[in-house]
């Protein structure tokens, strides 16, 4: 479970995968975009709006996808400019500016990386060689938290599932070098089998480059461990249900998996003395830790060496870097060229000193008037959501009151945190790129671990200001919109309401709606995990979800490659409800007046245009196949066509008729809220 997938277990995010156009009700899209005349809006809305862009947009050689709104690219360039300025200045010793400049310059020094070879990793490989017991292994894996993803690991510290007033460490499955457990399982399709074979070749290349003795045997031992971990893991769709999360006592874990030294693991992870934690995948975690008593220590050591080499490869010599790119860049993602080292350096700095960079970013690029306008938009969307709940006919009064209570307690975070992190104790050393990365990762983990067992602070943020994303956190019952996401075309101070409500308004509605999707609806307004639904209401809600699963499961991105309607359910619910509420909020701004006609389009039409344009994208097929398995979001084409066909306002705006590709009879349109 890599960092990109953390939101698949608990958080609900708006990050999207890319897709090619397809008709909504007969979705078998071709990978090549036709240069023929665009279809009518009423036949394929996504392609009609975005066809010109899809035909002309090129995916850069060093990328796997391209979005019509390249907010990440814009943000990265802005950060790069800030960092270069700091790196080129003489800064006070120990200052944030000096640390940022040193980290960046050291990361760029590939001649130094080439000179050092595998030397930066020697100390870690020696540590692994010295492990004499599974207890020592467990302690070593605890120390690795933040640096690498171990078979069971702590992705974050958050308010507890049963007691959201107190922080708990969140325990999760992990430890795989491939994107998902399915790649390791027997009976895979040819594409997945080929990827597994390429992964074996890649690991062998790492072992030989590092001059590890008996390289072939080490790789087979490591792959055996990984395969057993994969078989023990849960599939991602199961991980999406918070009802499967367990609050567990350490004593329970020790009793259930005595072959794993839990106390040594916690001690290494700076969590000594903690007695309770949240287990995101309890059955999988217990199955994985039971493997420690069955698998020979020598195999665990082989696995740990290969995983450490894999994690470090981008900051070792050129041969290691090339091998890493050949597999993760080309084989998995279809890239033909690696990203520039400067781009990778900015991304690593984001991980190493994210809030320090965020503070510099918002000072230049997120003025106070942007925040004020966003606060107004959020307020209007929340009002529209309250009105929608109040009008519901399928929900009983008692459940409706609980829903209204929850929406009234929503917290809103816009732009950046109120309190910034202190980086004074982080040690950044010139000439030690890998060491800087590891020290920064451990620094970040220790910052998080220090919160475990303490009172939860609702001011805490889960994302950085320079992150292009948005989120709903059910444990805090709040929505979060980082500054970098609040740029044109999503959020444009100069744009009319129709454009802003169709783009950023849909994002706001999406995140609000996550509190009432199949996951978020299991939490109340105070973040408690409890059932506040009447039985009949829950059954009606479940039936709506089943219809949405059925609708999206019918969509194919490639022939035979379907969307996983169950995995994508909560995001599809949020897309549907969010767009509906954003549309309602836009209509409210008109105050009964007719919308203005601009460029031949009514306000209602521009609203849907803006939504479709904000999510246009192209991808490489290698990445698309991977994301179909791992991403809880449906491909963008279906997030557009598959959603708007359920919105009455869309059919009214574009006058769809029976026989049109986008027509969906009113009886079949699904409105949840």
Automatic annotation (TrEMBL):
Q: Which Pfam families match?
A: Peptidase_M13, Peptidase_M13_N
Gene3D superfamilies in the record: Collagenase (Catalytic Domain), Neutral endopeptidase , domain2
Keywords in UniProt for this one?
Hydrolase, Metal-binding, Metalloprotease, Protease, Signal, Zinc
From what superkingdom does this record's organism come?
Bacteria
UniProt domain Peptidase M13 C-terminal: residue ranges: 469-670
Needed cofactors: Zn(2+)
Q: Does the keyword Signal apply?
A: yes
Repeat among keywords = no
Q: Where is the Peptidase M13 N-terminal domain?
A: 42-417
Instruction: Please name the SUPFAM superfamilies in this protein's record.
Output: Metalloproteases ('zincins'), catalytic domain
Residues spanning the signal sequence: 1-18
Family under the similarity heading: Belongs to the peptidase M13 family.
Q: What is this protein called?
A: M13 family metallopeptidase
In which organism is this protein found? Rheinheimera tilapiae
